[in-house]
Amino acid sequence: MALKTKTSTRIGVTILAWGIALWLFFPIFWMILTSFKSDVQAISSPPKLVFMPTLSSYAEVFERASYWHFALNTMIVSVGATAIAIALAVPAAYSMAFMPSKRTRSTLLWMLSTRMLPPVGVLVPIYLLARNTHLLDTCTGLAIVDMLTNLPIIVWMLYTFFREVPAPILEAGRMDGATRWQEMTMVLLPLALPGIASTALLSLILCWNEAFWSLNLTSSNAAPLTAFIASFSSPEGLFFGKLSAASTLAVAPILIFGWISQKQLVRGLTFGAVK
Amino acid sequence: MQAVFEHSPPAGATARSTKRTGFLLLSPSVLILLVWSIVPLVMTLWYSVQNYNLVDPTLHGFAGIDNYWYLLTDPDFLHALLNTFVLVAGVLLISVGGGTLLAVLYDQEFFGRGIARIMVISPFFIMPTVSALLWKNLMLHPIYGVYSAMMRAVGLTPIDWLARFPLMTVMMIVAWEWLPFAVLILLTAVQSLDGEQREAARMDGAGPIARFRYIILPHLGRAISVVVMIETIYLLTIFAEISVTTAGGPGVASTNLPYLIYSRALLQFDVGGASAGGVVAIVIANIVAIFLVRAVARNLEA
Question: I want to staple A95 with a disulfide (CB 3.0 to 4.6 A). Which of A77, A152, B22, B153 is the partner?
Fold first, then answer.
């Protein structure tokens, strides 16, 4: 943008961009704000922007449910599912990108199509299978299901990143006597690291926010944050203070994580999938 | 990237060993996905032709196509099917259309751009259950919601959005979650566009609309495919937002296929009927998948 933009255009852009940003962000801002109100303050009419902040809602939430238990479950499941999926997807994507066969394309599309299987269509069998294998209400069970649902997207994303790595670089390594394993771990992975990081970040976010399997395959032992928040959505629902505090607690880790890592997410994506 | 495919076709023994290695590296993922997609499918197919109700053990045995017949002739089913398509199409339209415009907007330079971008992207990080509760209670509640207060402040009567326009409201909530994802991806794509190319077009006297139409839009093809593909996958299975806000109601006004099957299976305990619904949902998803994958495959490959 070497040329000067007209000042009026620039002011217009600033106002429009900030207006939309504030409007889209407002619900989150309001949720955080309400979490520092008591249940009574939270339903005052008209809603108050200025008030005496209190931590009473947070205190009540912590008293009623063991937040850390849920948060830990979510973390174990998200990280576990992402790690296993990446470990399985790297060799698969490597094979597709550097040793393509006639079936590579259709294999990839088939993988993606398995992801379109509506979870609810297979809820009954998965539930029964989990029960019979004693994986119901365990972090392992939920992590396996999350891993399987994300695997196709992860394979495909890694494939797009790996294809950006020039094959001659890998071949040079092989000429020097590197094995396939060394070629993959010592040449390819460092080169594709931004892409792998982006993929992992996206997978973590999707796992963290996954609701369907979390609600249907866990009850108490392995219940993640999605279940934690569901327990605060009482039908009468007028406990806005508590509800907001619980919601803020449920989204805070991934929101902060997202804010910190969004640059990395974008940087990685520019290498492959959306270049 | 043609180079990857074209260079040095290995010959003879090397080719065979490469083929084998490639197959070995690929097989773990393929195998578990095969099991994951076949086993539950076969079980669902089996249940769908059985009389199987969890609260009525006297009812059992082969049902033939009864479950399907019952489902396909149920007006609720058609309604849910229509709602599913409306939701998917509506949210895709909003997020791709809005996302493209916002991507161009947030690509401009303005004061505090970094923070504004983070704010726009934030809703994507919010879990569906939370965003549904947030909108239902804090924003749209007819008495205590902020939107209602705003409407009263300007002299309007607040609307009970979820009761009056259940499907549209659910669509808006879902769009609020997925628009940021589209902005994230499309903004990334706009940024990767060569600055010199845009500058050259500008020098040649192309106006902002011409630049958008002939330079930016063609460049976004692949990114739009990515958004459409990933979002469709998730939108076909919207569940938490409906469960939390309207529970599919009033009546079946905001029931989509996943929610209909869920209410059959877990609220009416009709495993046979729910499985028939599951099979239908799988068939529909595959039809969509074929069209979608065909349409976007070219862009995804490039």
Answer: B22
Q: Per-residue b/e over B61-90, b at no fewer than 16 CB within 10 Å? A: eebeebbbeebeebeebebbbebbebbbeb
Mutate to test the interface with A, among B38, B52, B127, B183 (most CBs of A within 10 A): B127
Distances (CA, A) of A233 to A238, A243, B132: 9, 7, 10
Side chain identity at B245, as an amino acid letter? Answer: T
Interface predicted TM-score (ipTM) of this complex, two decimals: 0.85
Q: Answer yes or no: are the C-beta atoms of B174 and B207 closer than 8 Å.
A: no
Cβ of A46 within 8 Å of Cβ of B153? The answer is yes
Work out whether the CA dihedral B250, B253, B259, B265 comes out positive or negative: positive
Residues on chain B touching A124 (C-beta within 8 angstroms): 43-44, 47, 265, 271, 274-275, 278
Interface test with chain B among A124, A209, A244, by most B beta carbons within 10 Å: A124
**What is the C-alpha to C-alpha distance for residues B199 and B202, in angstroms, rounded to an integer?**
5
Distance separating alpha carbons of residues A210 and A204, to the nearest angstrom: 10
Query: Could you tell me if residue B8 is inside a domain?
Result: yes
Same domain, yes or no, for B156 and B287?
yes
**How open is the CA angle A112-B19-A159, to the nearest 5 degrees?**
35
CB B131 within 8 A of CB A39: no
**Optimal mutation site among A38, A104, A117, A215, interface B, most CBs of chain B within 10 A:** A117
CATH class of A66-230: mainly alpha
Is residue B53 classed exposed, middle or buried when 0-12, 13-18 and 19+ CB atoms within 10 A define those classes?
middle
- Which residues touch B32 (CB under 8 Å, ≥6 apart)? A88, A148, A151
The tokens describing B235, both together, are 């939108």
**Out of A151, A171, A275, whose CB is closest to B29?**
A151
Separation of alpha carbons B158 and B51, rounded Å? 47
Dump pLDDT digits (tens) for B11-36.
Answer: 556 677 777 888 888 888 888 888 88
Q: Is residue B152 part of a domain?
A: yes
pTM over 0.90: no
B45 within some domain: no
Nearest-Cα distance to chain B for A24, in Å, is 6
User: Which chain B residues are within 8 Å of A88, Cβ to Cβ?
Assistant: 28-29, 32
Count how many Cα atoms sit within 13 Å of the Cα of residue A121 in the half-sphere of its side chain: 27
Q: How far apart are CA B264 and CA B258, in angstroms?
A: 10
Q: Quote the domain boundaries for residue B240.
A: 66-301
